[in-house]
């Protein structure tokens, strides 16, 4: 059994993917080839924002966004400790301080009601994470940011394709950043990412930063990075975009089926999806007691699992002395001890899913 079945996806899309790759090999423009512009136009249209900047990874997207905003030493960025390290990593890399506030245990996203108390004169931005494929309460977060003159950067690495009150993830704040890591809802065959914004000035800055700060060849107007997306990866994403909405619908169906089937399983608590938003289930994650025993039992029955994430960032050696904590982070600690991700991909059939749920019921009851 596959945790994420990328081979099934490739088999379904093989002719289109192979043709796109062959076209790049034929024209030979491996860096900033024509597929880059085509991809950015299609992604911007999908999210319904005017600007998309493709980049080398989701991490690079967050880093470039912070650099474009001028975030640096002495500044603070408010975020969640219950996320992948990249979220805090980029804040530290620009010399700023990650400020951690707790999550809502119901959906494992940042608790918007706790953000305002964390704001100080040093605060420059708020970085909510759309964890497991569902946006945080973006309207509440944007309202706080507006009151205090801050910028919101959505870390949408797991939620591309999800909606919040009818708007696409990546288009619900000043800046949205996503990842095209192979396991993501829209994934390439290596690293990749994109930044979305409605702000033309920020878009221009981010385009320059991704090419070493160049406004034109060999004219460096700002400090930048080597953050371009490879043309081959853009070609693969273009092929996948043709059927992406079908995969989003399949993910929604499979996620809803999991929620329904697991609702009455003792010892399993599912992630709540708010009525005003959708999830693309970048991971299908539940909370269980005695996780080690559950993992061992599922492994013995051939069901692969993963833990996203076992140690919250405020307890990681890299950040324990390099962050500011506001209030209790008890929900983050609780989630880290209980979360368990089970197989999820758009090619999962009903029988396989029913079998996974049956094994879950057997080992959690």
**What summary fits the major beta sheet?**
8 strands, mixed
CATH class of the largest domain: Alpha Beta
CATH architecture call of the largest domain: 3-Layer(aba) Sandwich
N- to C-terminal distance: 23 Å
Q: CATH H-level name of the largest domain... which superfamily?
A: Type I PLP-dependent aspartate aminotransferase-like (Major domain)
Task: Output the strand order for the largest sheet.
Answer: 1-9-8-5-4-2-3-14
Rg over CA atoms = 20 Å
Structural class: alpha/beta
General shape:
globular
**Number of folding domains?**
2
Tell me the number of helical segments per DSSP (H or I, 4 or more residues long).
Answer: 11
Mean pLDDT rating: 97
Report on this structure.
By secondary structure, the chain is α/β, with parallel strands linked by helices. The protein has 2 domains: 236 residues, Type I PLP-dependent aspartate aminotransferase-like (Major domain) (Aspartate Aminotransferase, domain 2, 3-Layer(aba) Sandwich), CATH 3.40.640; 121 residues, Aspartate Aminotransferase, domain 1 (Alpha-Beta Complex). The strands form 4 sheets. Strands 1-9-8-5-4-2-3-14 form an 8-stranded mixed beta sheet, with helices on both faces. The protein has a 3-stranded antiparallel beta sheet with strand order 12-13-15. Strand 6 and strand 7 form a beta hairpin. Helix 2 packs across helix 7 and helix 8 packs parallel to helix 11. The longest helix has 22 residues. It is globular.
């Amino acid at each position: 059994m596959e945790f994420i079945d990328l081979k099934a996806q490739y088999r379904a899309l093989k002719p289109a993917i192979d043709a796109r790759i062959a076209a790049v090999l034929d024209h030979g423009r491996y860096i900033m080839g024509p597929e880059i512009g085509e991809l950015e136009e299609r992604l911007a249209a999908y999210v319904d924002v005017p600007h998309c900047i493709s980049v080398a990874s989701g991490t690079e997207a967050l880093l470039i966004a912070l650099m474009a905003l001028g975030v640096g030493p002495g500044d603070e960025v408010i975020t969640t400790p219950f996320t992948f390290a990249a979220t805090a990593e980029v804040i530290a890399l620009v010399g700023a301080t990650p400020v951690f506030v707790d999550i809502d245990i119901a959906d494992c996203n940042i608790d918007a009601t706790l953000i305002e108390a964390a704001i100080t004169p040093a605060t420059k931005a708020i970085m909510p994470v759309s964890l497991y494929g569902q946006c945080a309460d973006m309207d509440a977060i944007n309202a706080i940011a507006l009151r205090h003159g801050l910028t919101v950067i959505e870390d949408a690495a797991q939620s591309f394709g999800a909606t919040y009150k009818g708007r696409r993830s990546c288009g619900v704040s000043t800046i949205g950043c996503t990842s095209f890591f192979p396991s993501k809802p829209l994934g390439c065959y290596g690293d990749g990412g994109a930044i979305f914004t409605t702000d033309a000035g920020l878009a221009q800055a981010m385009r320059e930063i991704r090419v070493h700060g160049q406004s034109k060849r060999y004219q460096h107007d700002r400090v930048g990075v080597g953050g371009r997306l490879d043309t081959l990866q853009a070609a693969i994403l273009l092929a996948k975009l043709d059927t992406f909405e079908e995969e989003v619908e399949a993910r929604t169906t499979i996620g809803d089926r999991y929620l329904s089937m697991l609702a009455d399983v003792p010892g399993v608590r599912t992630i709540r999806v708010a009525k005003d938003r959708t999830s693309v289930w970048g991971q299908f994650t539940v909370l269980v007691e005695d996780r080690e025993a559950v993992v061992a039992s599922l492994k013995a029955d051939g069901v692969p699992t993963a833990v996203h994430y076992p140690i919250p960032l405020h307890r990681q050696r890299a950040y324990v002395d390099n962050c500011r904590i506001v209030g209790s982070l008890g929900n983050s600690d609780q989630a880290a001890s209980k979360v368990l991700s089970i197989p999820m991909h758009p090619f999962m059939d009903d029988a396989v899913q029913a079998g996974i749920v049956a094994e879950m019921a057997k080992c959690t009851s």
